[in-house]
Specification:
It contains 21 helices and no strands. The chain has helices at residues 8-16, 22-37, 44-47, 50-60, 64-77, 82-90, 94-100, 107-121, 125-132, 136-139, 148-162, 166-174, 178-185, 191-207, 210-218, 222-227, 234-254, 256-262, 266-271, 275-287, 289-304. The radius of gyration is 23 Å and the shape is elongated. It starts with 7 loop residues before the first helix and ends with a helix.
């Protein structure tokens, strides 16, 4: 109703004119958060005028309340379509400032900044490159903490980047982000957090090069994925099965001799009906791991010529 009544522009003007009045900034930014974040989300053209003000708020102020509200509003805008995300990317200094805020002392600020970063990094490779160009990979290891809200958004961001190109995936490997994702899989964290970590690793396994897949497997992802086959969550079980299929497909391609001898094939996995069958199947992979790794290395060397 406030948007329909034309209340956004007077609020933006008040915020722009009240840079030294913290009471107005705190409460005005809180109101702006709710105007941009009301559900269902408003059409971008109804709130697009707020973007310059929000960009200035996160660049010019360090108030926890102002930053939390402004970052939340930006994360809501980043959930929109192509037009809204493009506007965020092209807003001068905005993406770099969001990355800078990952080192803020407030967990709420970090969480909301991560929400926006994760949304921007998803969608297409160019958007991902825009966030990588702002140095997000250097900051992500710093926020992989036990704090659930931050960890969930960090795993979500890694998952979106891992869905990108081979160089983008390599950036995650070089930043040392695969072992923490595997650790989340093996942890007692809540299922939504583990789902984001599982999707991140599954994206690697589905789209990575043989060397990248081997790196992920050597980080110990097989056992945690097997452990997810019995959880009471169809989405997580589906991701785990897809990941294991990708591992088998890659190893089958490069190690056809072992695959033929042990019947460790992707087709066999697809035919299995129960998690117990799959777990037994993957246990046989573990028992063959030394031979698989040797043949894998030999096959890669041969492919390299």
């Amino acid at each position: 109703m406030v948007l329909e009544a034309g209340g956004l522009l007077p609020l933006l003007q008040l915020l722009d004119e009240s840079q030294e009045k913290m009471f107005i900034l705190d409460n005005g930014t809180f109101l702006l958060e709710h105007l941009c974040g009301t559900r269902p989300l408003p059409e971008f053209d109804k709130v697009s005028a707020a973007l310059p003000t929000l960009a200035n708020l996160i660049k010019d102020h360090d108030s926890e309340r102002v930053l939390t509200s402004a970052c939340y509003a930006l994360s809501c805008l980043s959930e929109g379509g192509h037009e809204s995300v493009e506007a965020l990317i092209h807003a001068d200094g905005l993406c770099s400032r969001l990355v800078d805020l990952l080192q803020h002392d407030s967990d709420d600020v970090v969480t909301k900044a991560l929400e926006a970063i994760g949304n921007i990094a998803g969608g297409d490779d160019r958007r991902t490159d825009a966030m990588l160009g702002c140095g997000v990979l250097a900051s992500l290891p710093l926020v992989l903490s036990p704090k659930k809200g931050i960890l969930k958004e960090a795993c979500f961001t890694v998952s979106n980047i891992a869905a990108g190109t081979v160089p983008q995936m390599q950036g995650l490997i070089d930043a040392g982000l695969i072992p923490p994702m595997v650790a989340v899989l093996a942890s007692d964290d809540e299922m939504r957090i583990k789902e984001h970590a599982a999707r991140a690793i599954a994206n690697f396994l589905a789209g990575g090069t043989p060397d990248q897949v081997q790196h992920v497997v050597q980080c110990g992802c097989v056992n945690p994925f097997c452990g997810l086959l019995d959880v009471m969550d169809d989405d997580v079980m589906s991701v785990a099965r897809e990941a294991l299929q990708s591992i088998l497909q890659d190893y089958q391609t490069l190690c056809s001799t072992v695959s033929a001898k042990t019947r460790l094939t992707r087709t066999a996995l697809l035919e299995m009906k129960t998690s117990a069958e799959v777990q037994d199947f993957m246990m046989r992979i573990k028992q063959e791991s030394e031979r698989l790794d040797k043949l894998y290395d030999a096959a890669v060397d041969t492919a390299r010529g």
